[in-house]
Predict the structure of Flavin reductase family protein.
Amino acid sequence: MRIDFDPEAMDRTPFYKLLTSVVVPRPIAWVSTMSADGTANLAPHSFYSVSCVSPPIVQFTSVGRKDSLRNVEETGEFVVNFAPERLFEEVNATATDFPHGVSEFEKVGIEQETSLRVKPPRVAASPVALECVLHGTLGLGDSTVVFGRVVHAVVDDAVMADGHPEIDRLKPLARLGKNEWGTTGEILDRARIRYADWEAGRGEGRG
Ligand SMILES: Cc1cc2nc3c(=O)[nH]c(=O)nc-3n(C[C@H](O)[C@H](O)[C@H](O)COP(=O)(O)O)c2cc1C
């Protein structure tokens, strides 16, 4: 038996809770921005993805109008800091609804690091930072999608193995449904199957 849910017939919040419980796990963009008057801001966003390969563009979504969005609109820049397991409490603390003009870096006690190409600072303890300039925004209902062109990436060599960021060293946090968070489980490593190999491999263990 399957249970049907019609978003048109439901209130916003229950459907939002359903959606965020089934679109899982979601990566977390720990977004740093700077207001026009120079206050640094930091907040997690799990509506986050890569939107384009060349040029490299990432996106995050502001549900409603929050300081991160306001700052990006004002200054045209942001940094996506990687959210690792070991910074779980800090990431969550920066989601507190501090008033505009209050810096989460200061309130939560997060060390800043100067970015190379943009004004918003990086999180010094985060292993990866993607420095972005605003490509554009897209208003969708109650939300705004922010697209940023990555103009610089920096990765801590402690998470690199053979010249590549390594998942076991990165240890990403993920957002699940409700107030749930996830960590990386077992890693499966399997190459994509080419059609020619699929045909040739018939009967060899794939049924
Ligand atoms: C793990 C996590 C993920 C979140 N993802 C989003 C998101 O994708 N979009 C959003 O608008 N708020 C998201 N939030 C809530 C914001 O982080 C929160 O509203 C924060 O106060 C916004 O800060 P700001 O006003 O400084 O931008 C998330 C919170 C947590 C804890």
